[in-house]
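so my prof wants the structure for this chain in the tokens format not the other one, which i didnt know existed until like an hour ago. anyway here's the sequence
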Amino acid sequence: MALSLPPSGQEVLDALPVAALLLAPVLGEHGELQDALYVARNASARAYSASRFPPGSVPPWAGPVPLFERFPSLAGTAVSRMLADAFRLRTPQGPEMVEWVVSTRSGPVRINDEVRVAPCGDHVLLTWERGDRLHMASAAQRLVRTCWAEWNLGDHGVEPSRGFRQVLGLADDIAVPALLDLATAATPDSLPALYQTLYDVILRKYTAECELRLSSNSERTFRMVAEPVRIAPGGLVWAVRAVFIDVTSDRRRREAAQHSASEARREHERVEAVAEIADVLREAVLPHFQDELDAFGLEAAAVYRPDAREAGVGGDWYKARELPDGRLLIALGDARGHGLEAATLMAKLRYALAGLAYTEEPVERLTQWLNEVACADGDESTATAVIARYHPERSLLRWTCAGHPRPVLVRGGRATQLPSPDGGPGISLGVLPDVTYTAAETPLEVDDIVLMYSDGLIERRPTDPDQDMDRFLEAAEHCRADGAPDAGHAGLQNYVERLVARLDGPHRTDDATLLALRRIGTR
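here's what i got, hopefully its the right format
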């Protein structure tokens, strides 16, 4: 059989699977490399040039030409050094990423390749591969913090991805751990899951996963998904292939979500408990009127609307109670703030007033004493109140005002705010000790209705107090004209509920309380 002739140099170049240039060194006076003549290129290089540069943008190659004359921007890259070192040291150089720009008629073209240079007889062989794909793969691993590796069980070799060290946080001077070394590098709490995963992959031959933390980077958590590599189906496992995904952010978000859910459950339970306490407190301290005041020639009705944002717990309170002297104690107040603290202060003041009223002292004195109680309770224990005593034998209401909105009288279809006591309203309870209060006297006629209320019923931000009061008076008259309250407790209750419904709305930011008294005759 006749042997064929050996291949030519061009045929050898064309057989290379990567783009290649054969360069002849151009030496200076002292033997240093100054340039390199571009003497030959292979088919892959021609195809690369055709794919990267627009037609006609690069002068056609017609024979040997200096490389840096044909591509001037290459002179400022690592290629110059690599050519000089390959020629001087007679050793291959690279691979190195080389980025340069070729100016064309249609604009600059950016080239990003992985370059190798090797001595080839008296010449130098320059080869390159599309480095952008490799570079993008490495960048993608950094962006999504994912890497992979394959461990050979026969020779304990390992083939990691380009971004393996960066993703796992391994120093450049530390060898990529072999499969057995992976357990040494893992934190102790990661070992049980890691051992189980390797057992499932190597011995049971199926894909498994676990969470893994490395001692060198213990603040980060990785999900390791591993599979067996077999040469033949059903054969022995020759290698373990694994992907590592940084799930630290996901785990932190999951833990934060679990913490938020736990906090939300606790807050919900707290709100439910507070609401339950609020219900008990309201039932204990806020009376429900029926016909209890008939003996005094009065009817009473009340509506209480708590601030929904505070789970129904507020500081509004009211009271109507017979005294030993045959007269009637009537009061409505508003303790400072919201929540259980306001409800507790409300209960203290209400029960304190009930006890003080048995002294049969006038309302001025009761208000003064109640102020001393609030002052003794602490700096935050402030409240407003209207405190009144009704004298049925004279159909007379004597009342004081401690920083509270003055009552409103509805008579003959017209609503007016009662004038202040002599000297004006007193200051709120609990602000200053040793304060004196004066009382106003309001005679009541049959069918007169006195409205006592908390500021939460009428205040609307950002309107001013005068506008709020005008709106309240208009509503009281409108509801009266819309239908005079029927006789009996039910009729009065219907009136106050219609009035509160007209005034209440989404802009309310506090508890709303309305207490109505109607004179029905004399005892």
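also thought this was worth mentioning. The mean pLDDT is 85.
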